[in-house]
Design brief:
Layout lengths: L1 E6 L2 E7 L5 H14 L6 E6 L2 E7 H7 L2
Length: 65
């Protein structure tokens, strides 16, 4: 699994999560994103060519309005 950290719609960092389940990789991605939330807008979790999860701060902010 890979976690792609995004800013402005572009990948700016990648973190490998080898051997994790989908749910564990999503949780690790959330923790990583929260630790660096000022640096990144979004993150995605991918397992090779399968998108497992997509987080968007814009969607979260829109829901809270």
């Amino acid at each position: 699994m890979r976690c792609y950290l995004m800013r402005g719609g572009h990948i700016v960092a990648v973190k490998e999560f080898p051997g994790l389940s989908d749910q564990d990789a999503i949780e690790q991605g959330r923790l990583l994103f929260e630790e660096h939330s000022e640096e990144y807008d979004d993150f995605e979790i991918w397992d090779h060519n399968r998108k497992v999860y997509q987080h968007s701060r814009r969607e979260i902010e829109h829901e809270s309005e």
